[in-house]
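In this supplementary section we document a worked example of the pipeline. Step one takes a protein sequence of length 492 as its only input; no multiple sequence alignment statistics are reported here. Step two produces a three-dimensional model, which step three serialises into C-alpha cells for compact storage. The input and output of this example are shown verbatim.
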Amino acid sequence: MLIRLLQILCLFPLLCYAQAKNPNFIIIYVDDLGYGDLGLYQDSQLNAPSIDELVNTGQSWTNFYVSASVCSPSRGALLTGNLPVRTGLYGNRLAVLWPGSQTGMPAEQQTLAETFKEHNYATAMFGKWHLGDAPEFLPTRHGFDEWLGIPYSNDMDWTIGEITSANVNSDLSTSHEKWKKAGPIYVKQLLNPTLDDWNVPLMHSVSNADQSYTDSIIQRPADQTLYTQRFTNESLRFIEQSVKADKPFFVFLSHSMVHVPLFRSPAFAGKSALGLYGDVLEEIDWSVGEILKALKEKQIEDNTYVVFTSDNGPWLTYAPDHAGSAGPLRGGKGQTYEGGMRVMTLFKGPHIKTGIVTSLGMDTDIFNTFLNLANIPSKPSAVDSYDLSETLKGNSASPRNFIPFYRNSTLRAFRLGNQKLHFVTNDKFGGPTTDHEPPILIDLVNDIAENNDLSATSPQAVKAIQQRVAEFQASITIAPSIFDRQKEKQTE
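The serialised model returned by step three reads:
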C-alpha cells in the first residue's frame, strides 16, 4: 500500500505538468471571404464538410468585425491588436502596400507572434503577408520563426506595357492616367487568368538562432494553382515538427484565396456545383479538414485553439463568378456597410462552448484573447484588444459593446450595441462617397441589410451614439500614414 502511494505521488507532478501544458493556436485566414460563403449562411450546394464540422463542434460569431475593409490594414490590426489609425498601418492615398514598398510593419509594433515567441512558442506563417516586402518588414522580422508565402496580394506584380504594379502608383499625379491605360487589360487578366500574368514570388524566410535571417525566392512566378495546397502542407509540417520538439506552437495559415485571380489545384478543378468560385471554396474547406485531422492524429485537438476568419468582405466587383457573397449583409470589400467588415468567424478549442454567439467581437480582440487562453498576461501595447475568453467559454457576454468603422483615417460609421450610425458611405468599391448629415441610423437587429434610416424618428439614439463617438475619438491619436509614404525614399 505504501509503495503504491509513493508511485502515485511520483506521478503527480507529471500529471500536473501535462494538464498545465501550454495550448497551441492556429489562425486560418481567408482573403476576401464573403459572410455568406462558408459557415452558417453558405450555399447548400457547396460541399464543405470541414467548415460544417467547425460550426457543429465550435462557436460561430455572427457579429465579428475586421478593422478595415481592405487587406493590409486589416492584417496589421489582427497581428498588433491595434486599430490601423493607431499604428499608421493605413493609407488615405494608397489603401494597401504595393510591390517595392519602402515602408511596412513598424519595428516598434509588437506582434502576436513576437509575444508568443517570448514565451517559448514555435511560430510560423504560411501564405500571404502584405505588410511590407522589403527584408526588414518580412514576417520573420516580426516574431515568426519561419515564413513561406507571398509578400503581397496575388493580383500584384504585373507588367502591362511600360506600366507595372511597382510604378503605377509611384507618382500619384500620373497614376490615374496609368490606370486608365492598364486597367482594362488588368481586369481581363483577372477574369481569364494565366500563371504568367503575374510575377509574384513564392518566398521562404527563416529566423536563425544567431539572430540572422535566411531569405530566398523559391519560385517566380509562383504556381498559384498550388497555393492552397502548399500553404496547408507547410502548416502541417510545422505542426508535426513542433509536436516532435514538444513545443507549443502558433501557426498563422494565411490563404491568398479567394482573392482574384482565382486558382485551384487540378484535384479541385470542376469539383463544385458552384463553378470556379465553388472549387476554390471547397479547396479551402479541404485545407481546414487537413488541419483538423492533423490535430486529432497528433492527439493535440484538446489542447489547440483554432480560429477561422477573413481579412474583409467579398470583392463584389467580380461577383458572382469570381467573388463571394455577403449573404444577408449589404456591401462588400472597400465599404463600411456590414458586408465589408462583418466576417463569419469560427472558434474551436478546449472549454469553448459550442453554438452561436451574437455578442460583438473584432479582429484586434484575438490578440489578448489568445494570450489569456495561454495564461500569458495581456499586452497593454495591444490597446484595442478586448479579452473574449470568458465569452468563448460561455461564462459572460462580450466585454466589447462598440465597433468603429474606419476607411483609411476617416471614421465612417460607428456601432454601439445593436445600433449603427453612418457618417460617410460609398455604394461600390472605389466609388464616390456621400456624407450624411444628420447621420443614418440603422437598427441592426431588425434591419441587417441596412435599408431603413431611423434618424428622423430616433434623434435621442443618434445623440447618444454621437456622444460615445466623441469620447472614442478623443481617446485616439491618429498616427501618420505609413502606406501613403511607401513610394518615398526613407531617410534616417
